[in-house]
């Protein structure tokens, strides 16, 4: 568009408020030929402007519309005569254009709800030959497609960022699981190493107990002999010596000490056995297992953490053996039990229930702890979600449990809670035989169905 509007042209198709005039009193008359040339030039110019797909409007310094192009008149669905002379605000309203904020340093976004289009409006100053401001030309360039493409790109970016986050979490989870597996192996190795010395200490203590019995018998018989054959002074001397060396006390205390040592060694043996059972390195794969036994082994391991916090009540139902990864399930139960103990402030109760129903094994672990806030229920199984102090909680216990139960065993793990009353975690494991697992050596067994929370 010529920025200096022609004040004399005959109107072409573009609307113009400037009436063509042949001459004015102060201006010399224009001959017919010149007039025709001017008119043609104006027609050409306006024809050109009408070819432009962008909307164009020219306003004077008061914001009154002097002309607009065909694209604008089409959008407004009105003849030029009805648009020229309107204030710019009225014109935009007539065209159904709504301001929608800035879209650049010098431009504003306009939406056209009727068509769903979006325009970018730029204002250019119009000056006369002396450089005086005569008004402005506003252009409206349609940016609907660009905006849609930008939004698509934004969405893709968000998806990509989400996938990256998920990848990071999976990586951390894998690392954690590997660490746990390594700790399990280490524990099993240590247990194995302890077994040997514990074995010979037990055996030696047994022998020592026998020796002590013999020594005691010898002293008794010696005393009887003395009583029979020795004279009074020798008997008194022997009694004195016996007292001096506290033989009676030594014999009875040595017996007590040996009994305590044997009890202690028995306890070490039990701990070693529990450790071995818990880590089950010899069965670090899928096998047929009894879930009640898994719970018992886990309780034995977690006992030190639980005993000061809670009374543990067990209601074990009768369960069929199921094809599972016992080492992993022990990890799930351990995470749930430790969480339960940590939720109890002073002392409370942890109830473990198991039962068999509709081809599935159900396990619930209920505590009388502080409970879970409703807004946290949906986030429990997210990796790194924790309400515990830094260094106390990693936020990975439940996400690992979810992984093992849902993804590795095709089961479900859910949580419910009344804040202040306690929480219940429910694990559902489909009962499977070796054939159903589709993989006898481990790996993914289930379809991964099941909700994470209620
Ligand atoms: N028995 C429970 N009672 C109350 N809140 C629980 C219980 N179990 C889990 N939670 C909540 O779930 C969060 C995540 O648990 P978890 O994944 O084991 O991570 P962490 O124990 O390291 O915080 C905990 O921080 C806690 O807020
Ligand atoms: Mg935890």
UniProtKB/TrEMBL annotation:
The lineage of its organism: Bacteria, Pseudomonadati, Thermodesulfobacteriota, Desulfobulbia, Desulfobulbales. Residues 7-29 have a biased composition (Low complexity). It catalyses: ATP + protein L-histidine = ADP + protein N-phospho-L-histidine. It comes from the Bacteria. Residues 440-454 have a biased composition (Gly residues). It comes from Desulfurivibrio alkaliphilus (strain DSM 19089 / UNIQEM U267 / AHT2). Its EC number is 2.7.13.3. It holds the Pfam family PAS_4. Residues 189-433 form the Histidine kinase domain. Residues 143-177 form a coiled coil. This is histidine kinase. GO terms for molecular function: phosphorelay sensor kinase activity. Keywords: Coiled coil, Kinase, Phosphoprotein, Transferase. InterPro entries: HATPase_C_sf, HATPase_dom, His_kinase_dom, HisK_dim/P_dom, HisK_dim/P_sf, PAS-like_dom_sf, PAS_4, Sig_transdc_His_kin-like_C. Residues 1-30, 430-454 are annotated as: Disordered.
